[in-house]
Every structure is written in C-alpha cells, then in structure tokens.
From TrEMBL:
InterPro entries associated with the record: AhpD-like, CMD-like
Every Carboxymuconolactone decarboxylase-like domain range: 45-109
Name recorded for this polypeptide: Carboxymuconolactone decarboxylase family protein
Entry-linked Pfam families: CMD
UniProt signal peptide: none
Single GO MF descriptor: peroxiredoxin activity
Domain of life: Bacteria
Amino acid sequence: MCADSPGNRVPRFDPLPEEEWDDVVKAVTASIGPLNIVTTIARHPKLFHSWIGFASMLLMGGTLSDRDRELAILRTAHHRSCAYEWDHHRKVALGVGLTEGEIAALRLAPDEHGWSDEDRMVLTAADELHAGGTVSDATWTELSTRLGEHQLIELVMLIGHYHLLAFTLNALRVQNEDGH
C-alpha cells in the first residue's frame, strides 16, 4: 500500500537522532513515543513546532467523535495509499471501537458494506473531498443534520490535514517503526 514501488521505500531522511531533539520533540515523544512521523518532521524545527499543535488538536482535542475521526482518517489513508497512516490509525480505530471488518471495509466503496447513515456521511465527505476537492451540497446538508458548525469545519480540515500528512509521509518515505 505504498505510493511508490516497495523497492523505493528507503526513507529520504532518517529520523532526527535523539541527541538532537529539542524540548518540544522530547515532550511529544514522551507522550506518544518516538514515532518516525514526529522525528522526521522534527528535522524542520520551525515547521514541526507549528504543525504539532494543529495536529494534536485534531487528533486529541477535536469535537468530532473518535469514530468519525478515525473513519475519516483511515478513508483518507486508503485514498492516498499511505501505509504509515493506515497502520497507525488502524490501531487507534480498533481502540475506539471499530471492528476489523469495518476497517477492512474502508478500502471498499461505501455501498459494499452495511454502514450506518452516520458513518456513510463521513465516508462520502472523505470520498468527495478526495475526488473533487469539495463536499457536495447534498452531502453537506446531510452532514449538517448531525454535525454542528465546529464539527463540519473540523471534518473538512481533518480530511485535508491527513491528505497533507499522506503526501508528506509518502514523499519522504517515512517507514513504520518496525522498518516497513
């Protein structure tokens, strides 16, 4: 599930060595572990410092339900063929109650699984943003029946953020911590 061939998966940058971590990187890794996404982006300290607050808010301080968040992230990881994002968020999704069957179904068309209307709305938004860069009026109206203003804004920004991360992870060839 890589954007390029498996033989080309050599990272373009090694993760930042621990002896070069600043206080922000140390704090983040103390909280979530020395993930390669963190220690690779930390090679650009100013960008990393700006990004980590935004990313943390979306992941840990947002207004979307955990289920909606992980459905949107995994659907985006699937669309962007981002193995790193998929592998990490698969574990998060299991932890917030998604089943293995549901996670596998995120690689299928939404009508190929018995999604609830609420889940289908989130997946449709992710699909539409991926395909056309926007959400249709019909999908927006449907989402608006259950999500408030903050959640609607957040959903679009979450999906966009995980597209950005997928581009970054794929282009920099960031590997999972197990080397794959």
